[in-house]
Amino acid sequence: MNKEGKKETIRVFSRQSTIIPAMIGHTCAVHNGREFVPIVINEGMVGFKLGDFVPTHTFTSHPKQARTRLSEAAPIP
User: Fold this and answer.
1) Contact between residue 18 and residue 49 where contact means Cβ atoms under 8 Å apart
2) Which PANTHER family match (predicted)?
3) Burial of 44 (C-beta count, 10 Å sphere; 0-12/13-18/19+)
4) Rounded CA gap, 42 and 70, in Å?
5) What angle do CA 68, 64, 58 make, to 5 degrees?
6) For residue 27, which phi and psi values (nearest 5 degrees)?
7) Which fold, 10-45?
8) How far apart are the C-alpha atoms of 30 and 37, rounded to whole Å?
9) CA atoms within 13 A on the CB side of 64
10) What was the pLDDT predicted at 40?
């Protein structure tokens, strides 16, 4: 694809594939378990895995815990 000058997105299921120098400048859509997330590969990504750049979990927040009021707490002896 580098020689032909094509700029198309490659869909990839394999998150364990290593990024090589020939992939620089291409766009890969990596599957995160639910959807394909596009990433553009640059020089700093060479040697890493494709899955390192696409998170699989979405952190929302910790659940709210019920607070006890000081007046309702057990008295201190």
Assistant:
1) yes
2) RIBOSOMAL PROTEIN S19P FAMILY MEMBER, SMALL RIBOSOMAL SUBUNIT PROTEIN US19M
3) exposed
4) 56
5) 165
6) -110, 125
7) 30s Ribosomal Protein S19; Chain A (3.30.860)
8) 5
9) 3
10) 93
Rounded distance, CA 50 to CA 20, Å? Answer: 10
Structure tokens at 19: 């990024």
pLDDT (tens digit per residue) in 40-54: 999 999 999 999 999
Q: How far apart are CA 14 and CA 18, in angstroms?
A: 10
pLDDT in tens, 58-75: 878 887 776 655 556 666
The ranges assigned to domains in the chain are 10-45
What are the tens digits of pLDDT across the range 13-37?
999 999 999 999 899 999 999 999 9
Q: 3-class SS at 22?
A: helix
**CA nearest 9: which of 44, 41, 52, 55?**
41
